[in-house]
Write a structure and sequence with these properties.
heterodimer; A: MetI-like fold; B: 484 residues; D-Maltodextrin-Binding Protein, domain 2; two-stranded antiparallel sheet; globular
């Protein structure tokens, strides 16, 4: 069958168009629901209330706590995972048999579903029989409260997130490190440039696009984290680890308040969009700057 | 030959003219093992039902589909399902989900209006959502229709408090079972919240089970303080996760025993009552007990952890579902199996009897089912007197919802033989048992917030301020839906 030359480009873009429609339909459905009083258990009250759901959540102190907890969680997980991932990637950058084996072993946590990882950690930190608590008892920390106290719950959740997702950053940065051109390093070697100078002036700038890409991926996942937090604390104690996804999950499945849950998800989308926009803009700037520095 | 003689002996037994002991002796004489005997009994019960003046075969060839939670009640139903198939000629399919995801699955299935499932397991509280939303059928239409319900079904044999607890008018503040209520579900098995304690530990400590909440706190403190040199780790196990499930067992049972309520009902307008002075005093006592003698990671405790800890000997006692103790006591995989005592608990020194809040595993019919009449056949068989008796005596359908099962000597023998004190606990608690919550559509929101507040208080927040904050938050939630 011959396809008209004029139509051919549209046919080629059809799959992308279908994917786009597949993404946009749920998105606009969520926006539509967010403008309604839509609670499944009170069907008689269903109807348009325009921005009342948004007004309600923005005037609720719990929502601002959710934003604070979500952003804190995201910030610390990204920073710690980046630092650890970069450190490990630098240590493994040189190809040899030991580094190759270590590289494979270090990726193992990434292959465990986050919910399962949380359950593993729940057992490890159990005060009655957990091995971590047993080991901590040797330094007098056997009654560390982990996820059962507001002061330590975020630390515990971030620790599990770091355990699961640091290998992801490590893989990306290791691939980046191994793909960097050799010439600048060889030239610096010949000139006797100190190691720290090489790292800060050559390695890091050239690695920045990889760092930003890895950070962007983690940012999007971290701010939408559900499994780890729900499995370990369900957002508690109190509201101390309540993040967007857990809150929206409760609104949807336990409280059947679809309108409010949709409004929360639209707000989360707006935050993600804003942060991504900042990241991508920064990424472009750095790309131009890095190219410029290398040309000089 | 021996089989036909045995069938006649079973008939005599089913008519109540022979004791179980004599039946077993006869079975031994005829060389019939226990497994064969229970099979024969099932067949005889089925034959007796089939002989009724009721067309059990009306829906022969029809297939119905059930949505079920993984639970011993379900296991007992499946063990007897062949009898239902033989009786009706119907086929039954089912999907089984773990409890962690079960209710999400039910919500998803029902809210989508899917006709995939004809009947499902539920809790009574859930029907406060499903009923008014139009997701489940009013079972009164079936129970009261003699053309659809077999003559031996005897709905009134189901414990009255439980029948009431499964019905509601849909009007916030109306008591379950009040005039105008619709029967959103039928009780299938239930839990009373009482004390299960480790008899070995209590004997070692020279203690009797607690008489009231203050004594419970003192005893729990004793066990926690003396944990280092003994086998146990702490005194009292209760649930603590950030969920409605933390509020409804021991906590609500004790709260109600002090005469406290969750809401004041002013002509259908509800006002949160958790911050009354009496409630604040109660919360202080409860928080003191959990903080000083509960598990270290209490805020993550669900029924599973509570049961595991008493089973493993980590806790000295629990204030939770009686069947939790029953099942962990009977499972030889648990270190402390066989060591548990059961105690109907009256937390308030001024109260005369326990007032356990009940959790009822129930059966409901999907309003979207295209085979409602056929589904009703399965439901009336499932919680009918014959199957309830089989579940209680042959399997682990504990606690059964029918008075006739509790009155049966066989069931009594079984429970007394495996769980000393259980029957006494039941007898002392059943009259005061009911759903002590105010029926209202935001049950899950309000109780989850309540659990979150309890967590805050347990980790050091001021009790008075936290309860004031909770009450004002709940009032705002009620106002948003026009109920305050």
């Amino acid at each position: 069958m011959k396809i008209n030359r004029k139509l051919f480009p549209y046919v080629l873009t059809l799959p992308a168009l279908l994917v786009c429609v597949g993404i946009l339909i749920p998105f606009f459905t969520a926006v539509y629901y967010s403008l309604q009083r839509y609670n499944l258990k009170m069907p008689h009250m269903k109807g348009f209330i325009w921005f009342d759901n948004y007004v309600n959540i923005f005037t609720d102190p719990s929502f601002w706590n959710t934003i604070k907890v979500s952003l804190t969680y995201t910030f610390f997980t990204i920073i710690i995972e980046l630092l650890l991932g970069l450190g490990i990637a630098l240590l493994l950058a040189k190809r040899n048999w030991l580094n190759n084996i270590l590289g494979v072993l270090l990726v193992l946590p990434l292959m465990i579903a986050p919910a399962l990882a949380s359950l593993i950690w729940r057992l490890l930190i159990n005060p009655n029989f957990g091995i971590v608590n047993y080991l901590l008892s040797f330094i007098g920390l056997d009654d560390f409260t982990w996820a059962s106290h507001p002061d330590t719950v975020l630390f515990t959740l971030i620790m599990v997130d770091v355990w699961v997702f640091t290998p992801f950053i490590m893989i990306l940065l290791l691939a980046g490190l191994r793909s960097l051109p050799r010439q600048p390093f060889e030239a610096a070697e010949l000139d006797g440039v100190p190691e720290y100078y090489k790292f800060f002036r050559i390695t890091l700038p050239m690695l920045f696009p990889f760092i930003l890409t890895a950070s962007l991926f983690r940012l999007l996942e971290s701010i939408q984290q559900f499994d780890i937090i729900y499995a370990l604390s369900q957002g508690g104690p109190g509201e101390s680890s309540m993040v967007f996804q857990v809150s929206a999950y409760l609104q949807t499945f336990q409280y059947t308040n679809i309108g409010k849950a949709a409004a929360m998800m639209v707000v989360l989308w707006a935050i993600c969009y804003f942060l991504c926009h900042v990241f991508v803009k920064q990424w472009h700037k750095l790309k131009i700057k890095t190219k410029g520095e290398l040309l000089q | 030959m021996s089989h036909s003689k045995m069938k006649s002996a079973i008939d005599t037994f089913l008519k109540g003219q022979m004791s179980r002991r004599d039946l077993l002796i006869k079975a031994g004489r005829y060389g019939i093992g226990f497994a064969a005997l229970t099979k024969l009994m099932g067949m005889q019960v089925t034959s007796a039902l089939a002989a009724q003046d009721f067309d059990w075969k009306k829906h022969s060839g029809t297939t119905i589909k059930l949505l079920m939670n993984k639970h011993p009640y379900m296991d007992s139903m499946i063990a007897e399902l062949d009898n239902f198939k033989a009786l009706t000629g119907m086929n039954v399919e089912y999907d089984i989900f773990a409890e962690d995801v079960y209710f999400d699955k039910v919500t998803a299935a029902l809210s989508s209006g899917s006709s995939e499932y004809d009947a499902f397991m539920t809790g009574a509280y859930m029907t406060w959502t499903y009923g008014p939303a139009g997701w489940c059928a009013d079972l009164n239409d079936f129970i009261q229709d003699s053309n659809k319900t077999n003559p031996s079904y005897n709905w009134n044999d189901v414990v009255g408090n439980l029948r009431d607890a499964c019905s509601w008018s849909g009007v916030a503040g109306d008591a379950p079972g009040a005039a105008g209520s619709k029967q959103w579900c039928m009780p299938w098995g239930f839990e009373l919240n009482s004390v299960t304690y480790n008899q070995r530990y209590f004997e070692k400590a020279g203690m009797k089970p607690p008489g009231d909440l203050v004594e419970m706190t003192d005893q729990a403190e004793y066990f926690t303080k003396n944990a280092g040199s003994n086998e146990w780790s702490y005194g009292i196990g209760t649930r603590g996760s950030r969920s409605w499930a933390t509020i409804h067992p021991g906590f609500m049972s004790a709260y109600a025993n002090y005469g406290l309520t969750d809401f004041e009902n002013n002509g259908g307008k509800l006002k949160a009552a958790m911050n009354s002075q009496a409630s604040k005093d109660f919360h202080k006592q409860w928080v003191k007990m959990i903080s000083s003698s509960g598990p270290a990671n209490w805020s993550g405790y669900t029924w599973y952890e509570v049961g595991n800890d008493i089973g493993a000997g980590a806790s000295a006692m629990i204030f939770d579902a009686d069947i939790l103790g029953y099942f962990f006591n009977g499972n030889p995989d648990n270190k402390e199996a066989g060591n548990f005592g059961f105690h109907g608990f009256t937390p308030n020194p001024s109260a005369s009897a326990p007032t356990p809040n009940v959790w009822i595993w129930s059966l409901a019919m999907s309003n979207f089912s295209k085979k409602k009449d056929a589904a009703w056949y399965w439901m009336q068989w499932c919680n009918g007197p014959e199957n309830a008796m089989a579940g209680g005596v042959k399997h682990n359908q504990v606690n059964p919802v029918r008075e006739s099962v509790w009155a049966s000597g066989d069931f009594d023998d079984k429970i007394r033989g495996t769980s000393p004190g259980y029957m006494e606990q039941y007898n002392s608690s059943i009259d005061g048992s009911k759903i002590h919550f105010t029926a209202q559509p935001l049950f899950f929101e309000t109780t989850t917030e309540w659990a979150a507040a309890l967590q805050e208080m347990q980790t050091g927040s001021n009790v008075d301020e936290t309860l004031d904050k909770l009450a004002s938050k709940i009032d705002r939630m009620m106002k948003d839906v026009g109920l305050a």
